[in-house]
Design goal:
The protein is an alpha+beta fold. 19% of the residues lie in helices and 44% in strands. It starts with a strand and ends in a 9-residue tail after the last helix.
Length: 91
């Protein structure tokens, strides 16, 4: 399982929440520039450094697809996914 921090907004206020997902159901990870820009422009009420990046992940499931905005660049999310996996090397 993978723990991520989601970000969502309601009426120009931003909120954080933790979610735990099954990494096998992540079907897409892409940058979410809208929140990147909002943070750099000082429009977010979160105490984050300007270098923080956001990603949109798409989860597949029985009911269709769910999208989440999470803290971290796509590369950072990918690194979290790969932690703990053992890669077998061929001779």
């Amino acid at each position: 399982m993978l723990e991520l921090i989601t970000v969502y907004s309601e009426q120009k206020q931003y909120y954080l929440s933790k979610i735990v997902v099954n990494p096998n159901f992540i079907s897409l990870i892409k940058p979410f520039g809208e929140y990147d820009n909002a943070l750099r422009e000082g429009k977010m009420n979160l105490d984050f450094d300007e270098s923080v990046r956001f990603s949109e992940i798409t989860m597949s499931g029985r009911g269709g697809f769910e999208k989440y905005i999470v803290v971290g660049s796509p590369m950072q999310i990918k690194e979290k996914l790969n932690r703990g996996k053992i890669q077998l090397l061929k001779d």
